[in-house]
Specification:
2 domains; seven-stranded mixed β-sheet; two-stranded antiparallel sheet; binds nicotinamide-adenine-dinucleotide; binds the ligand O=C(O)C(=O)C[C@@H](O)[C@H](O)[C@H](O)COP(=O)(O)O; binds zinc ion; DHQS/DOIS_N; metal ion binding
């Protein structure tokens, strides 16, 4: 098992990554909780919910909230629906919320926990590869019609208990999605990890030792950044590499058309191309493109409008006065945030889409 401690401004918490650790959840709780509320979805709960409940203290009162899977759950309606269920379950300020699932469950349940009675403890129980990113660092949010994660807070969990056994049932599409964020962390902070990932022929979720190492490498890059800049005043923006276009694609194509990681992978390709043009760096674009292709990432974008994507990109949280600021790389491991003026952005998105709409 790997353990990484994350120091947040008000507290610190441990991220434990290991096989089978769902059977000893009680070992990872920072204190005893009498009233526990678990949020999960209908694809995950049948596999893992009972194991997690069985490993809590026997006298704890447990309420389950099992919702439909998918990005649509990060909605205002679901947010209030879960709050209603928490009041029904008579949770108080000493109660605990458990988020059993991927980034959708973590973001949603975390945001609910951050606002219920002004904030009660919550623990992330990640079940996707992508959730190495979403469960660490304390960003929790729901979506607004205008764009992704526009209603949210910074609210760290009190622990992250990451049982990689859960990855055995994760669909291949979601494996791809998670590895896109690992590639992102490698690009911004760990060149050796990037080389290792590119050297592998295919993604392989079955090698648990390697998976634990990969997740830990990504988490370490993220931890270093969020410890230095928890509230994204400065360098935390680097974790948004690929997201300015990625989030716009997710919203514009319709949530669920591309997974978050698939959209971020496309957004990274765009950001890295722009970086090479701007800084003349060698960012291993051929290796990245080949890795994306041999792992069957969707790279065909026939139906998207450059104008609409640019409008979405202007609503990105990194924008200032509608001016788009993108994360670019001077070199591998040297991210920067750069303003990209409207015309340059529009032209770049137009030619990118043109290329990505050829079969
Ligand atoms: N807060 C953050 O810092 C942060 C970081 C990255 C991404 N995110 C957010 O995370 C979300 C994406 O998260 P995700 O990729 O984990 O997707 P997800 O939570 O939607 O899970 C993907 C799918 O896999 C299923 N699933 C999950 N675990 C499973 C398992 N072990 N076995 C079988 N099926 C399983 C789910 O039911 C779902 O259908 C997006 O909303 C994104 O914006 C947040
Ligand atoms: O933790 C961060 O900071 C990130 O940017 C991680 C991203 O992978 C993640 O998708 C995050 O939710 C994006 O945040 P947002 O502020 O752009 O919504
Ligand atoms: Zn992301």
């Amino acid at each position: 098992m790997e353990q990484i401690t994350v120091k947040a401004s008000q507290s610190s918490y441990k991220v434990s990554v290991g096989a089978g650790i769902r059977h000893r959840l009680a070992d990872f709780l920072p204190k005893t909780y009498q009233n526990v509320f678990i949020v999960s979805d209908t694809r995950i709960a049948p596999h893992y919910l009972d194991d997690y409940i069985a490993s809590l203290l026997p006298n704890a009162k447990v309420t389950k909230k099992i919702i439909e899977p998918g990005e649509a759950a990060k909605s205002k309606e679901m947010y209030f629906d879960i709050l209603d269920s928490m009041f029904e379950a008579q949770l108080d300020r000493k109660s605990l919320v458990l988020a059993l699932g991927g980034g959708v469950i973590g973001d949603l349940a975390g945001f609910v926990a951050s606002t219920y009675m002004r904030g009660i403890d919550f623990i992330q129980l990640p079940t996707t590869i992508l959730a190495h990113d979403s469960s660490v660092g304390g960003k929790v949010a729901i979506n607004h019609e205008t764009g992704k994660n526009l209603i949210g807070s910074f609210y760290p969990p009190v622990a992250v208990v990451y049982d990689v056994d859960t990855i055995t049932t994760l669909p291949e599409k979601e494996v791809r999605s998670g590895y896109a964020e690992l590639i992102k962390e490698a690009y911004i902070g760990d060149g050796a990890f990037l080389d290792q990932l590119f050297a592998r022929e295919k993604l392989d979720k079955g090698n648990q030792d390697q998976l634990i190492k990969d997740l830990s490498s990504g988490i370490k890059v993220k931890t270093k950044i969020v410890e230095a800049d928890e509230k994204e005043n400065d360098m935390r923006k680097f974790l948004n590499l690929g997201h300015t276009l990625g989030h716009a694609i997710e919203a514009e194509a319709g949530y669920g058309t591309f997974t978050h990681g698939e959209a971020v992978a496309i957004g990274m390709l765009f950001a890295l191309e722009l970086s090479e043009k701007r800084f003349g760096a060698n960012l291993l674009l051929d290796e990245f493109q080949s890795w994306l292709e041999r792992n069957q990432y969707p790279l065909y974008l026939p139906d998207l409008s450059a104008a609409r994507l640019v409008t979405r990109m202007q609503m990105d949280k990194k924008s200032e006065n509608k001016e788009v600021h993108m994360v670019l790389l001077r070199e591998i491991g040297q991210p920067v945030t750069e303003k990209v003026d409207h015309d340059t952005l529009f032209d770049a998105v137009t030619s990118f889409l043109e290329r990505m709409s050829r079969t």
